[in-house]
Amino acid sequence: MAVERTLSIIKPDAVAKNATGAILKAIQDSGLRVVALKMIRLTEQQARGFYAVHKARPFYADLVKFMSSGPVVVSVLEGEGAIARWRELMGPTDSAKAPKGTIRGDFGTDVERNASHGSDAPETARVEIPYFFNAGEIQAVVEALP
Ligand code: CMP
User: How far apart are the first and last CA of the chain?
Assistant: First the structure.
């Protein structure tokens, strides 16, 4: 399987619950590597741009408000099949339907306040990663120090 990179966002609800460390631990325990990481607060304009594909949806305005309501932790995850693995670890979009043991099942509330985001395909990751990180902010993996 190919080594991929995917964008992860720990959303304002999960950051507010002080779950950032627990979520990063679950990511690392799954074998994915964090190769870029920062805490930021999205402006409404940044949130609108990031979710522009959803702009015709009825939930768009609320989603933009929620995503800019507090700090988020954005990261780039790397590993074989990282896109599908991160989505599996997050669980389904609706946290109310997400099993315990998934990020959304453990830390989310509903379909909007769902604790985390992940890119849904390689083409999406190629757009979403540079939305938050320039090339110099993404580190090469060091498997083992000499
Ligand atoms: P995410 O994976 O970040 O991608 C789009 C987001 O829109 C999604 O997580 C949810 O936070 C939100 N979303 C998706 N569907 C709905 C919905 N039916 N109602 C409200 N918010 C939604």
Answer: 27
Token couple for 35: 């190769």
| CB contact set of 8 (below 8 Å; sequence gap of 6+) | 27, 74, 75, 76, 77, 86, 116, 117, 118
Q: How many CB atoms lie within 10 A of CB 134?
A: 9
Q: Average the pLDDT over 15-27 and give the result.
A: 98
Pocket test for ligand 1, best of 83, 93, 132 (most atoms within 8 A of CB): 93
Q: Which atom of ligand 1 is nearest to the CA of 90?
A: 2
pLDDT tens digit string along 85-142? 999 999 999 999 999 999 999 999 999 999 999 999 999 999 999 999 999 999 987 6
Residue among 50, 48, 52, 49 nearest 64 (CA): 48
pLDDT digits (tens, 9 = 90+) for 22-36: 999 999 999 999 999
